[in-house]
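Sample log: Cas12f1-like TNB domain-containing protein.
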Amino acid sequence: MVTVTVTAKFHNPSLSRRKEWQRATRLYRDTKQFCIDGWENGDFDKSVTTASIDNDLYSAIQNQAIREAKSDHSKDGAVRYRESQPFAVNNQNWELDTTENGTVVVGFPCVSQWWYTPIEVYDDIADPVERLVEGDADKTRLQVYRRGDDWYCTFNIEYAADTSGETPIGVDIGERHILAVTAYGEDESMLVSGDEAKYVRRKYRSLRDSLSEAGALRARNRVGDKEQRRIKDLNHNLSRRLITFAEQFEKPVIRMEDLEGIRENSSWSGVHSWHFHQLQQFITYKAERAGIRVEKVDAYHTSQKCSVCGSMGTRDRDHFSCSECGRGRHADLNASENIAQREGEPCTG
């Protein structure tokens, strides 16, 4: 299943629409605050319904406000909403359609009526929007909000992925080699040493230790900021290299180990301080901009199993060998081949 987040700008909504939407954002905030205050004061329990809400919002929007307030209260307890809240409606109570001239409109209830308003469909969202219009996809809740002088809506579109002809790109992230990448079935791979990252860590750790001994705490903090910037630049460069590698192949799909699996299964003590998460984030959003799907896969035994026969093998630093089929391979590339062959959960469209 592919999930695509669509954010679209409303095209020239009338003044009356904008005024009503602005009123709805305030009423939405007040509805959520009413629920939070009632639960905190013991006025009612979590089974509160729209019958207790005394405002002009459509009941579908009131229901969504109650659901969001429950979620906020369960996480944070007493909450004070100081700003207007984007109002939302569940997937069953809004629609997307086209007019006779092909204009895409979004329809949803608000205060006085349902509003059908054109949205601007730019290239990046044209395909998922068309799928939804044609009935080939499902939608999630709709949010409506203001940004500056403009109004926007955002929602997710879900549809079955067409995996025919795809090229799986397996990505292993580690200490000795920060990136080990294989285009499965294409006999192409990329291996990037982790020496630069380790050098940055050693250099700034030494500087921090020296400054701490000297009592220069402010200078020590500045050193930490510089290290973060160096690591961030490195992660940007690494993610760009990976996307460039993937773009050479037909319908690439990038597969990476699930971050939690990396943290739990790694024997390297530095895994918790290294910016695995940041690197994966950069890869994910750059892939999404390039139209490449990204999946997270189970990390279990990707480094121990032979990527050809599936038997447990032996790793000696950078070399992996399999006693069952006799295969020898760079250990991190063997892991990336295993990752490429596993189907995972999509984290981009």
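Observation: The chain has two domains: 2-159, 167-346.
Observation: The chain has a mean pLDDT of 87.
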